[in-house]
Design a protein that fits this description.
The structure holds two protein chains of two kinds. Chain A has one domain. Helix content of chain A is about 75%, strand content about 0%. Chain A has six helices and no strands. The longest helix of chain A has 24 residues. The two termini of chain A are about 25 Å apart. By secondary structure, chain B is mainly α. Chain B has one domain. Chain B has six helices and no strands. In chain B, helix 2 packs across helix 4. The relative contact order of chain B is 0.10. The chains are: A mainly alpha, B mainly alpha.
């Protein structure tokens, strides 16, 4: 368990360094939902290449690290209904809120951006309530 | 050049999500589950990520991005309905599956069919938003 914290901190520093590179060099906020969403709804058409290269790094780097770990279990549910409902909620919610854990959380809080802090409070509260409801009360997850 | 640094930033992001264990939905749900067997890892990830970003924001002051353009201006501290309702919806889905957009992409190559279903639904949800917005903003016809 203690190693998990250390790896969490190491991983966090890597995530923040990625965000710093994207900000200081490309001049962009590293927000996963915004970078993906702009490709989906066409609002990011002019910067599509940059977005795709970024997402290629996100998707492919874990593939390179995977062999070092042997077996990695994401413990993702196999319940299709839960996956579809959760995916829709995350997709719709992040676009309405204009950010997710990376944009509002990492990039917003580090700038003391009021909107980022408010968003983070609300999605963490909702996430906690969601786990209570679906795990402890309804027993679905 | 922009694409190269975008790839570098994405690779660092993906590596961080992987080594921190944030691609593990059980760890994310474990952090949100304050009434269960609470897992503090996510707080360390968030804290660790905020440190380099804090310094990066300090460096932006009075400068421009290395590859040109301007830094994104700090938004006005206005909390509107979209921010709150959107964050609540996002949080509900985040807790339900233990995935947010970054880790969902980071585990695409090894997360199996379940991960693909989640990402497909997430992309579908994102694609629906412009229609939902225009539907919500449609003026009520006069009687």
């Amino acid at each position: 368990m203690q190693m998990d914290w250390i790896w969490g901190l190491v991983g966090g520093l890597l995530i923040g360094t990625g965000g710093a590179v994207f900000l200081l060099i490309n001049g962009k906020i590293m927000g996963a939902s915004g970078l993906i969403g702009g490709l989906v709804d066409g609002s990011g058409r002019n910067t599509a290449a940059e977005r795709l290269w970024f997402l290629a790094g996100v998707a492919l780097m874990p593939l390179l690290l995977y062999p070092l770990y042997g077996e990695v279990d994401t413990h993702i549910t196999g319940n299709i209904g839960v996956l579809v409902a959760a995916g829709l909620l995350v997709g719709i919610g992040t676009r309405f809120a204009n950010g997710c854990t990376s944009g509002h959380g990492v990039c917003g809080i580090s700038r003391l951006n009021f909107r980022g802090i408010v968003a983070t409070v609300f999605y963490i509260l909702a996430g906690g309530l969601s786990v209570v409801l679906f795990r402890h009360i309804l027993g679905i997850i | 050049m922009r694409n190269l640094f975008a790839l570098l930033a994405g690779s660092l992001f993906g590596a961080g999500l992987f080594v921190s264990g944030m691609i593990d939905t059980a760890k994310v749900q474990g952090w949100l589950d304050v009434f269960g067997n609470w897992d503090p890892t996510l707080a360390f990830v968030m804290g660790g990520a905020i440190v380099p970003m804090f310094f990066a924001w300090q460096i932006t002051k009075g400068r421009t991005p290395a590859l040109g353009g301007i830094f994104p201006p700090k938004p006005d501290p206005i909390v509107d309905r979209n921010l709150v309702v959107g964050s609540v919806l996002f949080g509900a889905g985040w807790g339900l599956a233990g995935l947010c957009p970054g880790p969902a992409i980071a585990s695409l190559t090894f997360g199996g069919t379940s991960n693909l279903v989640f990402v497909a639904a997430m992309l579908g949800g994102m694609a629906l938003v412009p229609s939902i917005r225009s539907w919500l903003e449609k003026p009520v016809p006069a009687e």
